[in-house]
Amino acid sequence: MPSGGDRRVSGRQLDMTAEKESGEWRRRREEALGFRPQKEIPYNQLLPYSQRLDRESAAILGQIKANLARAVQLRELWPGLLFWSRKLSTYIRLYGRKFSKEDHVIFVKLLYELVVMPKLEISMMQGFTRLLISLLKKKELLSREDLQLPWRPLYETIERILYSKTEHLGLNWFPNSVRQGLSSSKSCVLSVLHRCSIENVLKTLVKCCRPYFPVEATAEMLDEWQPLMCPFDVTMQKAVSYFEMFLPTSLPPHLQHKGFRLWFDEFIGLYVAVQNLPQWEGNLVNLFARLATDNIGYIDWDEYIPKIFTRFLRSLNLPVGSSQVSTSKYLSNAYEMGHVVVWITSMLGGPSKLAQKHLSGFFNSIASFYHPSNNGRWLMKLMKLLQRLPTSVVRRLHRERYKKPTWLNTVPDSHKLTDQDITDFVESIKQPVVLAMFSKIGSLEAAQALQNLALMRPELVIPPVLEKTYPALQTLTEPHQLTATLSCVIGVARSLVTGGRWFPEGPTHMLPLLMRALPGVDPNDFSKCMITFQFIATFSTLVPLVDCSSVLQERNDLTEVEKQLCSATAEFEDFVLLFMDRCFALIEISTLEQTREETETEKMTHVESLVELGLSSTFSTILTQCSKEIFQVALDKVFNFAATNIFETRVAGRMVADMCRAASKCRPATALKRFVPHCCNVITQLTINDDVLQEQELDKELLWNLQLLSEVTRVDGDKLLLYKDQVVNILRRTLHLKCKQGYTLAGNLLHHLLRSTTLIYPTEYCSVPGGFDKPFTEYFPIKDWGKPGDLWNLGIQWHVPSEEEITFAYYLLDNFLKPELSRLQRCADGEIEMSRDDIHQSLCIVQNCLMGSGSLLPFLGGDPIRDLAPTLVSLTETKLCTGVNYDTTRENYREAIAQVMRKLLHHMLDNSEDDTKSLFIIIKIMGDLLQFRGSYKHEFDSRWKSFNLVKKSMENRLYGKKQHIRALLIDRVMLQHELRTLTMEGCVYKTIHRDLLRDLLLLSTSTYSQVRSKAQHVFFTALGTYNFCCRDLIPLVLEYLRPDKQDISQQQMKGALYCLLGNHNGVCLANLHDWDCIVATWPAIVSSGLSKAIFLEKPSIVRLFDDLAEKIHRQYETIGLNFELSDRCVELSVSLCEEIDSAVGLTPLTAEEIEIGIRNQIAKNNDSLRNYEKLIGTLLDLLDQRNLPWKFEQIAIGFLSLLLRDDAPLPTRSIKFFIQCLNHDALVVRKMAISAVAGIMKQLKRPHKKTEIDPYSISGSRPSQIQPGDRLDNQWLHYKSSSLPRTKDEWEACLFVEKTHWGYYTWPQKMIVYAPMNQQPKLGRSKEEMSEAEQLICDQFSDPQFIEKLIKFLSLEDRKGKDKFNPRRFCLFKGLFRNFDTAFLPVLKPHLERLVSDSHESAQRCGAEIIAGLIRGCKHWTYEKVEQLWEILCPLLRTALSSITVETYSDWGTCIATACESRDPRKLHWLFELLMEAPLSGEGGSFADA
Question: What pLDDT score was predicted for residue 189?
Fold first, then answer.
């Protein structure tokens, strides 16, 4: 085994050449662009039209910069700024960060300023935040010298949102707020899935901004949050989570004394000292893990390592011994595995090797838990540990040895991992991984661990896996063992095949493994079959299947291993043929006749379609990698199989046709020569007779050959031109067959011919550029086993449509599409009659032509629709080049199809609305007219997913640098091309779009439910594409809900409701974040309840209204009323457009234009406020209608409760309404009203004056360093029974500090307390001194009858045994007593006495809620009033505590805890003295004593 030095060299050489090439490439790019791009997507350069892209990207970037700057200067947040910031994120998706460093910095600063604007609407903020994250994601691009960001504005934003003071009162709706009222278990699950919550987005943003905080930040943060660190208080959690989020850990070594050295000893001391697993320990672990990985080699962890590993072991909660003690407390506070792994990885290596010693001990002690017979809830965690640890070590090795150095800290040589360190690590983890291969929860984690371990030490890891694999391939009785071992071998495949110096015998295992895996192609065991396909495909992708045995005679300079391999490759041909035999056997077993009864469906089942996919992709991989000779043999075999048998076309036929297609894709010229003439002859023979055309059931042989021909033609277009006359003849014979199956297959043939000739795609995916057909003298395939593709010399062979192919495509359209369109046109005009089948057939041909030539046809033209949204910024659409030159001289069939389809649709809706099959096709065609340009979004998404899966399963994370297999890199370039064809954001909305969308809306409200749902699907997709089309369409949808319309059917009503509801991830029309839309939709939904129609009672329609209300509740976020921009944004925007050329065609803004912009923005704010008040007024008017059904009344009240805000008071009329709702008959309404009134109290709260004090001058002493706990300088705050304020003078002289954590750890920089009583708002006001709203409340709550009814309702049971102390009711009472001091005490006192002595738990609970509210609400009362209050409360509490029961003790506990939260205990000394009086007085029975 060679020394470690060698290992590094070979990797380094690979790197050096790649480095040189990429460096060279970067230099060329800089010259071409005129600036140095930050980091562009390299795949764009490999597209066939790459030479046009630089000009295009420069133009788009210029537009984005100019318009962003204009939008900010014109103060236009919406639509201007939002529109162009979206364009910027699309630009990043298409080109990467293809802008100069200066631009990058300005973009970041501008977006940062936008995100931290305090008044910004949340939904906009989320959009800006995501864009800012993608700008900051690659931190190596901007160093600390280039960019500095302040930390405080970000902290204030997070404090405002995550620790919002008004959210729990329903005055602010954030995404994923907890909603009162209309929530169901379903909505809770959905809201978690629905959006990545705002919290995660903000935390990610902080993570991206951290490296750029200034040097002083650490000290400032410690000053800010250390006063919160009191372990007896919830604020400790907040402090530590802020530290974890914000503290910068990546400062360079010469600045570390201003960074982590300030806090490290203090925090690690805290970690070691606190033993009772508090909640915040996890956050500390995350912080240490980050610190360790950013500063490897600068911190000595040795003294803490034993402690750390003990804690890790404890946090795994493993069951030890016979007593299964696992308390829930430990479960909630387990560490996050990802962070633990990073921390362990960062401590490995170094001079002492202590961490590795402990890690080996750690794995030895838990190894037995990995045994497959052990199972428990801890298993997932252990598996995660196994999976993540090797990944993390590989990542560290990559950083130390192969990564390009950046401005971030590098690891000092003394602490880099040595080869011995790696060997020790692999040895220690090897045994658990091999055990985990057969785990009960699957072998995925083990396979991923092995993949990474094999990158570091193949010779240690692969042999034990192979030892398990060979016996597993022999047994037939243990399929699980086989699937597990095969998936692990797939993981190590690349390391096995590459072999290399330290595992040279690796490749010799490949052929024996392949041959033995063949029996796994077994029709009876689906999972075995799929894993075998994956196994064979993986190995054949990595290895050229070329027979090299002749080289043994020609050359004598081969090593032993190479000789062995050469002689083994003679078996490749047998392998391919045997594989085909197995596949044929599989196909013969799956024919439709054998697997189905007559009555069942004729479609493929899910399992069959998966097998079909596995079979075709594996076979095509094998043929791609074959030499010419082996391919020829395989082609003969598959051709004979296809030509001598006749298959049914649903299952077996599809599989055989797929195999033939794979053959013709790999080497089109050879394969087409065999297939096309054969099929054409057979078909021509069978259709000589004209009466065949009229037959309903066609000959099986004819159908099979049609199917074969239609699949074989999906190949490189220019190879098809040789056969064009033959194929066109076939189409002429078969497109108008009577038999549906026949003309469908002929339509597929037409579709595939058009696609093959008009699209851009790569024509080969070999693992080596140029293929394997070279003589062995110049090329020796064995050297290429497992070789990665070279991104800089990929040599992709593109198919770009030639002049001849395009002419042929138009020839097909002129001959087959045009006649159909004119027939349909005449039918629509009523000139000719067509039967349903004929219409269906014609539509199929139209659809196939459109799907085949989508990339050739220019988009629909027409006049744009203006004035849907007023704007001063141009909202132009960006046209992306996709390599197609539209030919304007020819007829644009897209326009023609659109005209005919609209006519035909209206003709059909008038005459034959029940012909749903044809309507389905029309809907599909309309969707394609609007969107289709050669590829579908859902296909692209699944391809992108599978690309990522394959990439993960075969990547080499050690070397990095895109060392993927060539086929994968080609795939990625193709995906880049498709991404460009699919990008259609922010398109101009034209009249033709309006017509098509209106037709889709008609279909969405049709009589037949399937037609409706298909049309709605297309409708929703289109809504997201065109600017502001929603504003145009909402009024049309709402027409269907008008109560005074007589002629609406229930199907139309249903369709309209579904259109408002939207699909689960698209636009929801009922809830656009825009006042103009909501003002229209919400009242319309409520007023539809006034309709006289009978069908409102139908369960399905009732359910739709419920879903709609629930979705609005779930998705609503507070909509902004204030659209101002900060001055700092405006300054930055000026610098953004300084160097913009006149090329963009925009002149700088004049002072008048800017003035108009500012006026517009003020007008928009006023408009919003007007709309807000109008909406509330309309809803209240509707609620006043006597005949509004209860369901709609509740929906309306729900809407009203969403409209409470913290920046605008609720109109008096609605306050009155909510107070009356407190005593409503329905429980749902009462709940909403309680929340709303609590919120209204918060709005009416009068501000209290505060002053600043200096705690050190009060105590007269100042400690020299931080020392938590009791000190001289915090003694004046201690609670002593001897010195409590018991008289009025003492009370007023006493300095109350309401925050109970202050002073425990240290004092805040600026300590603020409430000013003395005489400066606070007046208490005990008369009625004249109150506002109108306050008078309303005062009247109602002073009314004894009102209060009696309210208390009666509040003390009812809601759900027996499930009720708990309700914080919302507490907030209601707290607000009442805070705003109106003792005004309502006389009315409430008799009720309180009754409730407390009542033995029912619901009465006790109600009493507890009111008492807690009283105690918290009396915060600012005068001494006399407080004293009176306690005279009432003390006897009440004594009664309550003496009659406490098992059911109510948690409620009283919550009551007392809530009452004391954030209050100076000296203010509540009555309560504490009462609690400490004599707990064992003996009254009240045994429970009270216990």
Answer: 35
For residue 869, what are the contacts with CB-CB under 8 A and spacing of at least 6? 79, 1027, 1028, 1031
- 8 Å CB contact between 734 and 683: yes
Distance, CA of 687 to CA of 697 (rounded, Å): 13
Q: Could you tell me the sign of the dihedral formed by the alpha carbons of 570, 576, 578, 579, in that order?
A: positive
How much is the average pLDDT of 781-797? 86
Distance CA 458, CA 454 (A): 4
CA 878/CA 874 separation, integer angstroms:
12
139-153, 250-264, 742-756, 1462-1476, range with the lowest pLDDT: 1462-1476
* 39, containing H or E segment: strand 39-40
> In the structure, what pLDDT confidence band is assigned to residue 267 with cuts at 50, 70 and 90?
very high
If you ran DSSP here, which 8-state letter would residue 167 be given?
Answer: G
Q: Is-contact 726 680, C-beta < 8 A?
A: yes
User: Which residue do the tokens 């950013």 mark?
Assistant: 294
pLDDT band at residue 2 using 50, 70 and 90 as cut-offs: very low
Copy the structure tokens of residue 831. Answer: 């000139």
What average pLDDT does the segment 1180-1195 reach?
90
Q: Which contiguous run of DSSP H or E holds residue 1251?
A: strand 1250-1253
Q: Which of 1272, 1264, 1306, 1254 is nearest to 230 (CA)?
A: 1306
The string of DSSP codes covering 1139-1207 is T--GGG--PPPPHHHHHHHHHHHHHHHHHHHHHHHHHHHHHHHHHH-TT--HHHHHHHHHHHHHT--SS
3-state secondary structure of 90: helix
H-assigned helices in 1245-1286: 1255-1259
Computed from CA positions of residues 641, 642, 643, 646, in that sequence, does the dihedral angle turn out positive or negative? positive
Model confidence, pTM:
0.90
Q: Three-state DSSP class for 97? A: strand
Count Cβ atoms within 10 A of the Cβ of residue 1254 and give its class: 0-12 exposed, 13-18 middle, 19 or more buried: exposed
| Amino acid at residue number 1114 | R
Could you tell me which residues come within 8 angstroms of residue 980 by beta carbon, excluding any fewer than 6 positions away? Answer: 94, 880, 881, 882
Please give the pLDDT value at position 186.
Answer: 33
Question: Which pLDDT belongs to residue 823?
Answer: 94
Tell me, letter by letter, the H, E, C secondary structure of 366-378: HHHHHCCCCCCCC
Output the CA torsion sign for 311, 312, 313, 315. Answer: positive
Looking at per-residue confidence, does 688 or 277 come out higher? 688
Number of C-beta neighbours around residue 722 at 10 A: 12
The answer to whether the CB of 1245 falls within 8 A of the CB of 1378 is yes
DSSP, collapsed to helix, strand or coil, labels residue 886 as coil
Q: What is the CA radius of gyration of the chain?
A: 37
**Residue 142 CB partners (closer than 8 Å, separation 6+):** 101, 104, 105, 108, 136, 212
What is the per-residue burial (b if ≥16 Cβ within 10 Å, else e) of 655-665? bbbbbbbbbbb
Q: Going by DSSP bridges, is the β-strand pair 96-97/39-40 parallel, antiparallel, or unpaired?
A: antiparallel
- The DSSP 8-state label assigned to residue 1209 in this structure reads P
Q: Which residues pair with 987 in a beta bridge?
A: 1026
1147 phi, psi to nearest 5 deg: -90, 155
Q: What confidence score (pLDDT) does residue 1318 get?
A: 83
60's tokens: 């788009």
Sequence-separated (6 or more) residues with CB below 8 Å from residue 186: none
Chain centre to alpha carbon of residue 625: 37
Residues 6+ apart with CB under 8 A from 1411: 1392, 1433, 1436, 1437, 1455, 1459
Query: What is the sign, positive or negative, of the torsion defined by CA atoms of 1263, 1268, 1274, 1280?
Result: negative
List the one residue out of 355, 339, 348 whose CA is nearest residue 296.
Answer: 348
Of 1463, 1412, 1467, give the one whose Cα is nearest residue 1437: 1412
